[in-house]
UniProtKB/TrEMBL annotation:
The keyword Ion transport does not apply. Residues 219-386 form the Protein export membrane protein SecD/SecF C-terminal domain. It is found in: Cell membrane. It comes from the Bacteria. One of its GO terms (biological process) is intracellular protein transmembrane transport. The chain crosses the membrane at residues 243-259, 264-284, 290-314, 335-356, 368-391. It comes from Melghirimyces profundicolus. Residues 122-218 form the SecDF P1 head subdomain domain. This is Protein translocase subunit SecD. It is a multi-pass membrane protein. Its main location: membrane. It holds the Pfam family SecD_1st. Residues 63-120 form the Protein translocase subunit SecDF P1 domain.
Amino acid sequence: MRVRKGKIVIFSLLVIAILATAALTGPQVAKSITLGLDLQGGFEVLYQAKAEKGQKITRKVLNDTAQALSRRIDVLGVTEPQISVEGEDRIRVQLAGVKNQDKAREVLGKPAKLTFRSPDGKKVLMDGADLKQGGAKQDYDPNNQPAVTVQFKNAEKFRELTRKYVGQQMPIYLDDQELSAPVIQEPIPNGEAIISGNFTVEEAKELAELLNAGSLPVDLKEIHSFAVDSALGKESLKMSMEAGVYGIIIIFIFMIGFYRMPGLVAVLTLISYGYLVLLAFSLLNVTLTLPGIAAFILGVGMAVDANIIMYERIKEEMRYGKSIPSALRSGSRRSFLTIFDANITTIIAAAVLFYFGTSSVRGFAVSLITGIVVSFLTAVALSRIMMTLLVRSNLLRRPGWFGVKESEIGEL
């Protein structure tokens, strides 16, 4: 039988492409992945929503509160925050990389309900819901002191109120604290007011940002919170990666030693698996956590399992006395449904974890589902393509290349 060099060339180019892509772009892809709270340090807090009188805590109220918290987190400059609604009245917030935890707690938990009241301070005339979107900004009052300028949606309503209270005070409150009590000198026609209160520039900016973010639909009670030091997070990442590398090296040695050439193909597909999973994490903006790393390593195990199932089927067909090309075709076909069923059942389990789980469990589920989909493509499709190229090249003529002894052929 003549060796078909074209198939060997294609196989070699495919190997070079896999190794070169992983080596040259892999580090950049890995660095682009957002690390979670447990890997880079940060702050986590669990809130319980408290209903006000006559108010009912519904899923919509919780989701609206979560959105308001998300807008407030933008004030802190935190990227990729994790906010999840849990149970019937709880919201969990995870802020990876946040440095000033006291400020984070203050910004998140402050109700920030702005009200304009009657001169006696008892009747609410207008509130934060009447402000234009993004209508608050840091400015300066007539005495050149830091202040906050606010614009109302309904300028006519504000004009009528200021007309009604000309010569009287219109106190401005943030929650239950009076910020200022300006005296209305004349009706204000442009729907714009200035809030002053002995602010510093930074305090005025923070108040403006809070008002733009909106007040919280419900009061939040902090149940518990904790901080993860960045050094601890880095140590966790280092230990996890070392454990993963050692485990993968052992798998590589086992696959090549036991399955010979198919084992080498499995190693190449596993390298492809690792690269493609990290690329998927980066493109999907997945926040990688310790459970996510565990799911990634578990995906490696499932990818190896898929390779083992296919290679064992091929070896069985060879022991029946079939030729190598025939054994490859029938063994691949027989193994497909087994691999498919195993992957589908795991995806279903991961989907259930995602639906019912908390944030860390959901992170595990997302990573696991991503890893399963990629492992199916690499361990089944890519592995079969590479094995077919090798077999059709007529380079692998002896069963020993597949870990099958000559004496074993015909035993089954």
